[in-house]
From TrEMBL:
GO terms for biological process: terpenoid biosynthetic process. This is Fatty acid omega-hydroxylase. Pfam families: p450. Belongs to the cytochrome P450 family. It comes from Salvia splendens. Transmembrane segments: none annotated. It is a single-pass membrane protein.
Amino acid sequence: MAILEFQYQSLLMITPLLVVWYLASRRGKKPPEPTIWPVLGMLPAVLLNLRRIHDYATEVLTACGGTYRFLGPWFFNIDMLFTSDPANIHHVFSRNFSNYPKGPEFRKIFDVLGEGIFGADFELWEIHRRTTMAELKHTDFNAYLERTVWDKVDTGLFPILDQFSGGNHLDLQDVFQRFAFDNICKFVLDYDPCTLRTGLPFFPYEKAFSTLAEPLLRRHILPEWMWKLQRWLDVGDERTIAKAKAAFDDFIYSHITFSLSSDNKRSVLDAFEKVYREKKSVVINGTLKSFIKDTSLSLMFAGRDTTSTCLTWLFWLIGQNPTVEAKILEEMEAELGVKSKWRPFSEEESHKLVYLHGALCESLRLFPPVALEHKAPVSPDILPSGHYLPRNGKLIISFYSVGRMESVWGKDCLEFKPERWISPSGKIKHEPSYKFPAFNAGPRTCLGKEMAFVQMKMVAAAILYGYKVRLREGHKVSPRDSIILHAREGLKVLLSKRN
């Protein structure tokens, strides 16, 4: 009893002290600037907002002028600097690019990507970039892209849309992910896995991309020893990552083995095989198969998630803005002449769809496929905002927040307005990548940007012309708390054919 009475008395004494300390610590702070608690740091605020972490980070960044320092529990050693300031982004991704390689910390977190372009630095990154760019600029590439996309629209997309038209709800996010996955596999592996087929069967290697997104975000937040302990115990997020990696390996190794032994090789794998044989002793570790697997996986990540995520949010935004849908249809009729009958259009013709391009840019601004990026300087640095970063200090750049900052995009920053991307002359308005980093920024800007826009215009135009898409009533759509901004519960819609 004496012990219980002592504990009770102690609690009565400590509670008022904590309240006084909390009120004092809040003085001069604007909500929702997080409180720094004794021992725990800012962790309680993160835990309270774990299901809306990107929006919470945006609120804090807005309150703090675009940059703030997150202080974790003292025993976790996870202090980091968050920013959405375009000046800081320009500094890190362009002006002081050489001081911010991906680095060993990034490669630890994203170890599943191996030596692919996402985690590569210096000469290896240059090799990846140069080789990939050569393939995308090949004289036959545009014709190949058109043929591949329209074939998948005819044989995969339309049959699924027809099957669900006037009937059950369809998850468009799932459809877009399958569509993009089939297309990027065809480009990289010269193999179409046909995951977009009637019945929408489950394919573990295709869904493995989605299951990785949340565990990889939590690796940014948790101390390294904690997630490495999970890996050793084979539990939790690390078990999920291990299963996804095994699914990737089984799928990709089986197809690159066939492709590399074939006399009729696709140029992508052939080009990287040549690079491996020329540069192995200089910059590339591991076997030929592991290098090709890592290369393929990085390209597949980019090809699947960029287009499918943008299209998902585009149709969610259009579903709430019928005037935008009407303007896109008017533009298609005027520029493509498809008023009475649908026809596929070329890559060159896609550039005429300016308003649709603006709508896609708005989707990417509000919901960038990659929500954040991790950087660490090789040498100590002072950002344009005045914040100091020590050597190897962790910097998190929130691409999600940049597109939602009133100081960057104006008072209407949360509105879906394709018109903001159209100049008075009717052309697409260019915005610098440090203000619009949906495709990254600086020298690491996504090489497949134009390829993605062409593919997305073809898919969006084909669906909007042939079908009325309505959001399912009562279906709540919000971004997942993950590296990739997938919709948490998918995008459930009702389809009906247009007359």
